[in-house]
Amino acid sequence: NAGVTQTPKFQVLKTGQSMTLQCAQDMNHEYMSWYRQDPGMGLRLIHYSVGAGITDQGEVPNGYNVSRSTTEDFPLRLLSAAPSQTSVYFCASSYSLGRGEQYFGPGTRLTVT
Amino acid sequence: DQQVKQNSPSLSVQEGRISILNCDYTNSMFDYFLWYKKYPAEGPTFLISISSIKDKNEDGRFTVFLNKSAKHLSLHIVPSQPGDSAVYFCAASDRRGGATNKLIFGTGTLLAVQP
To answer: Which phi and psi (to 5°) does residue B82 adopt?
Structure first.
């Protein structure tokens, strides 16, 4: 098992550009989520999905879109990048609902200039 | 409004001694608590968890204590090893009223274990 994979590892965008952060898991996990980590802020939930076709907002959803067309993939889209979106982004997945233990990917470091 | 707080940004201990990391929460609806460990340039990895029906959970060198009345939990590492040096995040979840697995994280504590 590769676990949770994220691409790219690093990305630099200019303000206003759009891009998609990719996340995939091969553990057949129902639950997937996206977090961002900023200095002094811990990890904050952006969006999450409890299964294919079902997504919902977390704490900081503005400026981001998600979709879940398959169990394996959960891409995060930045529609129009802003410097405030400079952060490290982590994707996570969990085997079943009701279990908090989540498996995290290695992260994508995004810089918006 | 920070629902999960880790008030110590850093902690330094000697190898072989006990490390105690603390976490406070404000939401009395939280019923499941977890600790994650994070090395630089890697994603967080799950360490240990505790349900609100327990006050202690142990896994090898790691023990988590939960004091519901004080809304406080702590992670004890005994004995501490240099490889334990990492950032430790406390997280909490409210699993009642719909299982969403949403986690609220604290800001983390950087543990440095000195050889």
So the answer is: -55, -35
| A95: contact with B, CB 8 A cutoff | no
Flag residues of chain B having pLDDT under 70: 97-100
Contacts 24+ apart (CB under 8 A), A41-45: A41/B107, A42/B4, A42/B6, A42/B89, A42/B105, A42/B106, A42/B107, A42/B108, A43/A90, A43/B44, A43/B89, A43/B91, A43/B103, A43/B105, A44/B105, A45/B102, A45/B103, A45/B104
Those residues whose C-beta lies under 8 Å from the C-beta of residue A32, and which sit 6 or more positions away, are: A23, A25, A48, A49, A68, A74, A91, A92, A93, A94
Distance from CA of A94 to the nearest CA of B (A): 8
β partners of residue B90: B35
Query: How far does the CA of residue B7 sit from the closest CA of chain A (Å)?
Result: 11
pLDDT tens-digit readout, A2-54: 899 999 999 999 999 999 999 999 999 989 999 999 988 889 999 999 899 99
Pick from A43, A48, A104: CB nearest B100:
A48
Chain B nearest-CA residue for A38: B107
The alpha-helical segments, DSSP class H, found in chain A are none
With vertex at residue A94, the alpha carbon angle to CA B87 and CA A32, rounded to the nearest 5 degrees, is 95
List CB contacts of B45: < 8 A, sequence separation 6 or more: A104, B36, B37, B38
